[in-house]
Structure formats: C-alpha cells, structure tokens
Amino acid sequence: MNDQATMPSHNKILVVGGGIGGIRAAMDLAESGRNVVLIDKSVSIGGLITQLDRTFPTNDCDLCTLSPRLSEGGRQEHIDLLTMTEVKKVSGDVGNFTVTLSQTPRYIDLEKCTACGDCFKVFPECVSFNPGLDHRAPTCMRYPQAIPQAYAIDMHKCQDVKALENVCKAGAILPQQTSKEIELEVGAVILCPGADVFDPSGLDHFEYGKNPDVVTSLEYERILSASGPTQGELVRPSDGKKPEKIAWIQCVGSRGLQKGAASYCSSACCMFALKEAIVTKERFQDSIETTIFYMDMRTFGKEYEQYRERAENEFHVNLVRSRPHSIVGDEATGGLDITFAPDDGSPSITETFDMAVLSTGFKVSESVRKMAGTMGIELNAHDFAKTDEFSPVATSVPGIYVCGLFEGPKDIPETMVQASAAACLAAKATQPAVHIDEDTLVNLPERDVSSEEPRIGIFICDCGLNIGGVVDTQNLAEFGKTLPQVAVSQVVGHGCSKSSMDIIHKTIVDEKLNRVVIGGCSPRTHETKFQDLLQRAGLNKYLVEIANIRDQDTWVHADDPEAAKQKARHLIRMATSSVKNAHPLIEHSLPMHKEILVVGGGVSGMTTALSLADQGFKVFLAEKAPQLGGLAGRIKKTIEGRDVPVFMEALTQKTLQHPGIEVIFNAIIVDHTGMPGMFKTGLQIAPQMYYRQIEHGVTILATGALQNRPETFLLGENPAVMTQLDMDTLLEEDLDRIKAMRTVAMIQCVGSRCPENQNCSRICCQSAVKNALRLLDINPDMRIFVLYRDMRTYGFTEDYYLEARKRGVIFVRYEKDAPPQVRPEKDGIEVTFVDPILGQSLALSADCLCLSTGLVADDEASEDLAMIFRLQRTGEGFFLEDHVKLRPLDLSTPGFFVAGTAHSPKNIKECIADAQAAAGRAQTLLAKNSIELGAAVARVDSNKCAACLVCVRACPFDIPFINADGYSEIDPAKCHGCGVCAAECPAKAIQLMQFEDDQILAKLDGLLERMVA
Ligand SMILES: Cc1cc2nc3c(=O)[nH]c(=O)nc-3n(C[C@H](O)[C@H](O)[C@H](O)COP(=O)(O)OP(=O)(O)OC[C@H]3O[C@@H](n4cnc5c(N)ncnc54)[C@H](O)[C@@H]3O)c2cc1C
C-alpha cells in the first residue's frame, strides 16, 4: 500500500470515502485488476464501523470480523490510499476525469512511523484526543487495527516542536509538512463518503447534552466497545454506576418527529437498537432491563424478523410501541423520567430509567453536500445522491457512481452490495491495468524446515475485552511456555493489528520458529491473514494453527472465567499438539474458464448477464420458461411511478441481441460438476428434451422467488379479493372497475411474519402505499383502509407513506393475535378489525380487498438447484450467503453468487443493485488467469491402497479412479477437499492434506492431556 498516488494515471478509479462501502468497492476493483486511489478525509479508513461494538445481524465484533478486510485494503498493491484527503475539483467526462485533491498535513512520515506511540505518551495534547464519547477522533490512531498504522499530529497544539521531533526514534515527525494539492487522471469516480448521524443537541425535551446519561446510539456503541472510553465496561456516564434499566428511543431525527428531523426513515436504527439491547443483555447481566420505545419496528431485512423475535422472546427486550415526549432528569434518584403515550390512547405513563439511548438517524453532512455540488451531482429532496430506480448506483453525472449511506440510509449488507455494484459499473469505464495472478507481496524465501525439530511460537491475542476481559492472557501465555517444543509464548494485544503482526513476524524470524499457534479468534475470518504473515516471514503458510479462543471459549463462557481459563488451555494445548505434525504443503492451480452461467432470466439475471457481457465476457443465460422477464415482467409501475414494462422490454431486447449472451430458453439444470473456474453444468432443454453441457468458470443464481398466494381471506374464492400484484395489473387494465370502487381495504403481512413464513417480505408495505396512491390518482374520492402490523416504508419510501396519509388513506394497526376477519357480501367483502385506539371492533364494507402477500422462495426449484449445485439454503428456501456482511452475495461454495429475490425478498431497484454487484463479485474471480486450488486435497498412499473402490463410490464429485497400476488415483486439480474418501477408506490409504489423521489425533491427545512426543 502506498499513501501517495504513485500508479500510472491511466485506468485509475477514484474511490472517495474509506468506510466499509469504499473499502469494498476498492477491493473489488483491485481484485479485478483495476488501479484504485482510495481517499478518506479522516486519519484512517474504516468509517462508521470502526466506532461500532458489534454489528447485526450476526452480532460479530465488527472490527474483528472486518479488520482482515480493512488490512487487505491496505495490503492490495493496486490500491493507493490517501488519508486526510478530500476532493477539491472534478472536470472532464466518463473515462477521462481530471480530479484535484487536497491533502491536509499529517506531520508524520508514513513510511517511517512504526506506531510505537512514543509521541503520544510524551505529547498527548497534540497526538491524542479526548477518548470520551467522541467518535470522530482527529489525530489519534482511532482503533488498534487502524490503517494506516500511524499517528497524526496536530502541530498547532504542539508547544515544543523540536522536543516532539526528538522523541520519535524513527525520525517520522515532519513539522515542515504542508497541505498539498494532487492532480489525478481517472476513468471513473465512486462516491462513498457516508453520512453523519443526526445531532440531537437541539432537542431540549430529551435533555441531550444537558444530562450525561442521555446518549446517542453511536455514543452507546463507544461505551460498549473495548476500545471505547470505559474499555467496554457498561457504566452510567454521570456517576460510573452500573445501569439496571436502559431505554432506547427510536426515530430521533428520522420520520419527521422532532425539530430539524428528516422525514425519511433511517432504515438501520430499529435493528441497531435491537442489537444494542441484545448485546447489553448478552455481555452484561441478563437482569438489566432493556426497553425500546418505537413507532413501527422496521426489521425488514433478510431474517431480521427472526432477530426481533429473538430479542423479545430469548433476551426479553421490552418493545413498547409509543412516542416518548420527554426525558427529565430526576435529581433525587439520579434517574431519567421518561414520559410516553401508549398507543392504545390511554393516558401518558412516566417510568424511570438509568440511561436513555437516542437512536439517531443519518443525514448528509454539509461538506459532502458541497463536494457533490463541486462535481455537479444532483441530490434528492433529502440531500442524498439522486439515483434512478433502474440504475441504483449511478449518479446524475455519467462515470460517477455512489454507494452506501450517501445513496440513502442503509446497513452494512446493503452498503456492501451497492459498493460491489458501483465497482462493477466503474470497471466498465476502465480496462484492467494489470494481471493480478502474481503474488505482489514481498515474502522472504520459504525456509526448508523439513529437517528441523518443531520450534513452536504461541501468540495470544487479547482481542480487547473479547478475550482479555474473560481470561488472563498473560497467564495463558505462561501456560503455553510449559508445553513441549514451544520456544516462545507471549501475549500480543490485538493480534491482527499491524503492530502485533510486525511483532509476530520479527519473532518468527529472530527465534527461527518453524511452527506457529495463534490463540485468538475465528480461523474463518483470520486464517488467511496469519497464513500470509507466515509466508512473509519465510515459512510455509500451512505451518500455522489457530486456537479459536474467542468464539469457542470466551464468548461462550464469558460468565465463568475459571471454565474459560481451563478451556483456553485445552484449546492451546490441542493446537500446539496438532501444529507439531503440520508439514509444508504445495498449492495447485489450474487455468480459468472465463465463461459465466447465469441461471434465471428475470430482471436480476438479465442485468447481471448484461453487466458481464458488456465487459467482454461470454454469458450463458439459462431460463426455465420460454420467455425472459420473470416476476418483474408482471409489474406495471414502481413506487416512483416508473414504467416497468417499457424498462423490461428494453432490457429483454438488449439481452437477446447482445452478441456476448446466449439465452437458453426452457432449460432445466440437471447436473453439475467441477470447481470454481472450471464448472460443467448439464441442461435439459425442452421441448425436444435434449441434453447440453456448458463449461463455465462462475455461476450466478438469479432464479427469483414466487408471489405468495396463501389460501386465506377468501383469496381465490371471491373475485373481490386480490393480491397487490393483481391490483397493479387492474390499475393499468381496468380503469372503469377502479373508478366504480368506493372503498378498498388492504391487509398487510398476509402470509408473512407468520408461523409458515416467519420473515418480513420487505416489499409489501411499499406496494400497498404505491397502489393506494395510484388508486387515489384515478379515483380521488375512494376510501382506502390499510390494516397493518408495522408499516415498513424504510428509507425514502417513507415519503410515500406520508403522502398517502396526507391524502386520506387510513392506516389502522392490528395485532398479530387479532387479525382482521373477512366475510363475503353481495357486492364485495366485509372486513372486521379491532381499532387499537378506540379499543373497539369495527366493520367496513369494501368493494375490493387487496392482500399484501409478499414473496416466498420457490422452494421446490431452489431445493433442486441447491442439491445439484450443493448449496445451502435458509429455512425459508432462499439461498444462503457465505457471510451476511462481508460476502452478502457470495454463496458458500466458491464460484457461486446469488442476485435478486433468490437471495431474499427485494424490490426492482434492489434486484438491479444485486445483479450489478454479483457481476462485480464474479469479475474478481474472472480477472484471474488461473485458479488457486489450495492445498487441502486428498492424497493416496499407493502402498496401502487395495483398490477396493470404496473411494470411487464414495466421492460425491466422481474424482478417484483406479489407474493402470491398479491403485486409486485422485487428481489434486479436481479434488474438492471434502474428505469423504479419507474417512471411508478402510485401509487408511487416503489422507486429506492439512487435516491428516496424525494432526487430528494429536489434537485429541492434546484435549485428553496425553501429550504426544
Ligand atoms: C449507531 C449505529 C449503529 C449501527 N449498527 C449497525 C449494525 O449493527 N449493522 C449494520 O449492518 N449497520 C449498522 N449501522 C450502519 C452502518 O454503520 C452503515 O451502514 C455503514 O457504516 C455505511 O458505510 P459507508 O461506507 O457508506 O459510510 P461510512 O462508514 O460513514 O464511511 C464514510 C467514510 O467516508 C469518509 N468521508 C466522508 N466525507 C468525505 C470526503 N468529502 N472526502 C473523503 N472522505 C470522506 C469518512 O471519513 C468515512 O471514513 C449502524 C450505524 C449507526 C450510526
């Protein structure tokens, strides 16, 4: 990584903002061979997520999960990182922009700074910042894994510059540094500058700023965080006492309730409040009372409804639907009196809490607004970058794309999707600058350790409080020293931070270690990082073993430190025993097929196919129907009023006419073999039913979902009852019938958020609002009643909900346990429901009952595909992503991606973003000319093989065969490393490399405390 723009100017892409969105976009571009300049105005990259403690929906410690990504961002040779840098001017056109950047001086030489912290110790006033609840530190290293790993100096605060210079042994202080302007030629720009959070200082009724126990969500995250002001101890800011009752107040600064608030919904706040309440219960005492005051609980993402259910039922988080109107500090008790009006119309209630957390929403900062103005970017009514429903990450300026919070309020998974989509589009504007197969890292030559006795180094990571808060890491390291063949055992703080990695690197070299054990977190997220470290230190990367103390021990036994200590010792002993038997392995590689198979020809499938074909890739688009279009082919209008059939027709024609796309209609997938980069998929094609096999490197599933049509509320029995999709068609095709209707009732959550389908279908609330507004456009006198459980018009769709209410649509809430009842009438339907405010049952006669039935997975089809492709699905039958936040569209089988509603319910705009993102992710593989196979392949010992055929029969991929010499042979290039053959072989003639029997048995011995020599 360089902190200067040193790459050749052609083919560069500028990414503005190094939050999670910017990092993802930069990484995708770099992996697909583009040169990137990533700038951030802050001292380090990471953005908002570096302030968070854990993140929903998996409640990972975010920095722990994402920091390998962050440092990969720093590691990528094709990314030039410029911190403390902003855009001053942009001119030119797509493919040919000239950008002027302005960089604030850091007064530190990044090449020399070792982040030792000496300057910080001696001159804290000009290096550190007040680590209170401040979340945008100006000069410090904001978190242990910060990138770049370097301090920044506020030279104006320094009283003795000479002394400061002298304190730095590395000679890294540069007092003469000045601001500078940098001019760049770039092909495209991606904007991901994020957003600010609403400042509630003006809200006197909540006493924010006056009473220290009223904090914002971001401040609460700082309190929970191990790198925060209380080192992760939950204490009340006013007096340091442990709180027993905490309240969250939703929609502060969003949904237009308070002074200066925005009218839109900030989309992520309901989930982050639930997360904060769950983490509070999980990490601290379960007895802490947590209460969330909310208007509508908007848990609309994939499986987010189950998250809410868990919060309520498993963690006993109180969810109170109401609008607190004031918080008043009670001097006598030191508590906070929160007064709220229950939504059943009963008189206000006052309850005392120890702390209140204001769930503040997002707003675009003044500086980002100005930057957009400089670039000529059109903003929407709320000052976010204006995008089109059919082009979700393109701004009004061709060649400038947007992702993340600046496009609209959203969470991490959606930010990641948009970032990959923006990267895909920006890549179109430039050509790959480099072949990226070569390992560009500087590694020491690999040392031959085959004749050496094991010399093991154990490095214990404290992971902040995640490990260090539960077990005594020093004591664990001392224990490590007692184990055989251990040469070094020490604590290394945050093992994945650059400074700790440097220490491990140096120790490996200095101490001539030949095996390494990391006592830290999950190998799933961090193994590659430590393997890379070994390579850099001249060791074969397979000589490291990770003991997952965090996930398997300190997280599980946080409340029982003694048990955690014992288990940590077991885990370290097991890893040490196993690594002794590890030996250097060789990785294999194969040439890469550049063709892509896209399954499903709806809006997502066609968009992803076009995105790839436009970049010169050959795409096979397999559609099981005789035409393209899918479900979007049946939708007439979007909520913004865009004409879907016109868009779909253009998309279809473009797909059919594109020379790089071969559409195969009536195609059913019947078999599949191979591995990423060289798949073979068999299709059965109707009506002739002939078989065709396609060779391809990547597979993208865009098989969509089905409109739910549950047999309920007289659907299918009574002509007055229809779904929102039927209504969408009626609105275009039978205006006379619409004009004749006097009353329309709509029921939300039909077939969603129920035992048969636990999740929210996401699109139904906006569909109902859209159709209600269209009905009123045609028939302004119509009475429309929408019976709902929570109105989930997230983001800017809240504007349409507001408009519907203004235009007289009546929204009435119903309880899950008391759904509306329907009865046929002569010319319509009678709908009976309980009005929660009146507390009475009401009946209305409707000419039409419109059911918001949402989307369900095409269970049968997705089950077949999951079986053939060996993919995982959710309980509802949607394809399961590999990692909700890091790889939201990558499936767990490498080389497979998912886009659109095959992943989970979404609207057309979101499907298009998905499709572009899946194409972007696919390009990161397709850019490579060879496939790295890793080393975990099965190996046959011909001396032991009896050619019994058990492996030939057992292998799910048909790889082993009996060769001419009469024993089993397994081609390492084809082996998937599943280990089935090794487990089945009766003669123990097959070993799975990296997981050999002696390693596993040594681990067990370690567990049983019978140490092997
Ligand atoms: C309290 C809270 C809790 C949350 N919890 C969760 C959660 O648990 N799970 C989840 O999925 N989401 C959560 N979110 C939302 C999540 O943080 C965002 O979705 C995500 O961080 C957005 O990433 P981004 O890259 O768009 O923006 P950011 O993370 O804000 O990054 C923007 C970056 O751009 C830089 N920048 C800004 N302006 C400029 C400029 N002019 N020039 C150069 N650089 C600039 C900034 O310094 C920053 O580094 C939470 C948000 C909050 C406020």
Note down, in words, how this protein is organized.
With 1013 residues, the chain is of the alpha/beta class. It has 27 helices and 49 strands. The strands form 15 sheets. A seven-stranded mixed beta sheet has the order 11-17-12-13-14-15-16. The protein has a five-stranded parallel beta sheet with strand order 5-2-1-9-19, with helices on one face. A five-stranded parallel beta sheet has the order 27-26-25-31-44, covered by helices on one side. β35 (783-788), α22 (798-806) and β36 form a beta-alpha-beta unit. The longest helix is centred in the middle third of the chain and has 20 residues, at 561-580. The radius of gyration is 30 Å and the shape is globular. The model is unreliable at 1-9 and 433-441 (pLDDT under 50). The structure holds flavin-adenine dinucleotide.
